[in-house]
Structures are given as structure tokens and as C-alpha cells.
Amino acid sequence: IHDGLPEDTFTLMNISPFRSQAWCLGLFTYAFQMVLICMIGVNQLQESIMSSDFNVPFKVDPVVRAGQFFTIIFALATQHDILSSVRFLVMFWNDPHWDRTLLGRDENEPRPTSTEWAVNILIPNVL
Question: Of 21, 22, 19, which is closest to residue 9 (Cα–Cα)?
Fold first, then answer.
């Protein structure tokens, strides 16, 4: 059933019921990552009191700035997590049977609500 899905904690959120242990593990992982990013950001800002933010040089050629900007955008856009999340959202955006594919529900069970779609597909892939 789950062939082709990435093997990560956010996929656990996709295939697990809302508020289950697996779903909460994915949410905790995201929260932990955000705490670490905030700690690194605060540390970098404190280190750069006598210089520029993040110790970035001010006087560089515009070509260097443009190259750095596009490199950062390219690096973020090609991250496996981002690409797989976008693919996952596109794959299940208009799929009326997403609950059968991900959650293994039967045809006889009631159709999932939009809240269930948001909890199982949207939230994990936006995180």
C-alpha cells in the first residue's frame, strides 16, 4: 500500500490516525527541529553584535550576491523533504480515494472529511 512514500516521520503522520503515538512523534520531531533552529539563530545573532548579522560581508559584488541568493534557493528547492512533500500534495490533492490508499479503509466506510484530509495530508506536508 505504501510503496513509493518517503520513509520519514512525516509519512508516519500521513498514514497514522490523528493524535496517535506515531502522529504525535512526527509533530514532536517538527517542534524539536524548530527549537534547534531558533537556538542556532539566537546564537548567530548574539555572535554578530560587533559585525553584520550572521557575519555576512557587506561589500561584495552584485554578481556574488546574486549567486549566493540563487544557490540558497536552489539548495532549498532540491531538498528531498521539500520535493517529496510537494509530490505528495499533488498526488493526493484531488484523489477521492486517498483514505483507502493511505489509511487502508474499505469502500463501505464513510468518506473522509476535509478535516481528516488536512490532518493526514496537508499538515504533515506543510511542516
Answer: 22
* Contact between 120 and 14 (Cβ < 8 Å): yes
- The CA distance from 112 to 17, in Å, is 12
Contact criterion met (CB below 8 Å) for 84 and 90: no
| 123, 13 Cβ separation under 8 angstroms | yes
Most confident of 17-31, 60-74, 81-95, 97-111: 17-31
3-state secondary structure 28-73: HHHHHHHHHHHHHHHHHHHHCCCCCHHHCCCCCCHHHHHHHHHHHH
Burial of 90 (0-12, 13-18, 19+ CB in 10 A): exposed
* Nearest by Cα to 2 from 118, 103, 106, 123: 103
Task: Examine the pLDDT at 95 and tell me if it is beyond 60.
Answer: yes
Q: Are 55 and 48 in contact (CB under 8 A)?
A: yes
